[in-house]
Amino acid sequence: MGVAGCGKSSLGARCADALGWPLIEGDDFHAAESVAKMRAGIALTDADRQGWLERLASMLSAHQGGVVLTCSALRRRYRDQLRAAKPGLRFVFLDLDPATAHLRVASRGAHFFSPSLVASQFAALESPVGEPGVLRVDATQPLDALTAQVVSWLAAGGRP
Ligand SMILES: Nc1ncnc2c1ncn2[C@@H]1O[C@H](COP(=O)(O)OP(=O)(O)OP(=O)(O)O)[C@@H](O)[C@H]1O
Ligand SMILES: O=C(O)[C@H](O)[C@@H](O)[C@H](O)[C@H](O)CO
User: Fold this and answer.
1) Which residue range is the domain that position 124 belongs to?
2) Within a domain: residue 106?
3) Within a domain: residue 117?
4) What is the DSSP string of 109-141?
5) 83-122 in b/e burial notation, b at 16+ Cβ within 10 A?
6) Does residue 108 have its Cβ closer than 6 Å to ligand 1?
7) ipTM of the assembly?
8) Cβ of residue 26 lying under 6 Å from some atom of ligand 1
9) Number of domains composing the chain
10) Which residues contact 121 (CB under 8 A, 6 or more apart)?
11) Which residue CA neighbors atom 8 of ligand 2 most closely?
12) pLDDT class of 136 with cuts at 50, 70, 90
């Protein structure tokens, strides 16, 4: 979880590989209207995210074993909705500063997410630090180091 550009897709793919778990790429399940809004530089509302979170929650609960999901999950209530679908769900919070997030989003070329929306991601973000089952990581670390951190945290039980 984390703001646009924090590295959810990059780290999620590596963790899924390392753990041998399937990957659900959350961005693939936004409504077409939501993608059009983000492309146009209009931030999503709670209402826009509701159906998306329901789709992600039902995919999570359909998996019997381990599964990796990439999802911005910016607000506490979004995370609680996902937790309700998958008891024991853990969150890796990719913590990134606004300037680096903006730089990454602006330099990644053909992607629907408008760089003008990065500030709104930070406005929506409610830090998950202090919630159960959350690992906060420094999203500027190299991906290999981040993957190792996640895998060893889960192996140790995935507690805060
Ligand atoms: N740890 C990292 N160090 C340096 N660059 C990174 C790191 N993680 C991701 N990046 C780069 O930052 C950009 C955004 O990464 P990525 O698409 O994985 O983020 P994201 O959180 O999934 O974004 P979004 O949700 O907006 O799709 C990419 O160009 C990626 O290569
Ligand atoms: O909740 C949201 O506002 C969205 O999920 C965004 O975070 C983007 O989909 C994602 O980061 C793509 O760049």
Assistant:
1) 8-155
2) yes
3) yes
4) -S-SS-GGGHHHHHHH----BTBTTEEEEETTS
5) bebbeebbbbbbbbeeeebbebbeeeeeeebbbebbebbe
6) yes
7) 0.95
8) no
9) 1
10) 3, 4, 43, 72, 74, 101
11) 4
12) very high
Global pTM value: 0.96
Pocket of ligand 2 (CB under 6 A): 4, 27, 44, 49, 72, 74, 113, 121
The whole-angstrom separation of Cα 150 and Cα 154 is 6
Tell me, what CATH number does 22's domain have? 3.40.50.300
Greatest alpha-carbon pair distance for the chain in Å reads 43
**Which ligand 2 atom lies nearest to the CA of residue 71?**
5
Which ligand 2 atom sits closest to the C-alpha of 44? 3
Closest CA to ligand 2's atom 4: 72
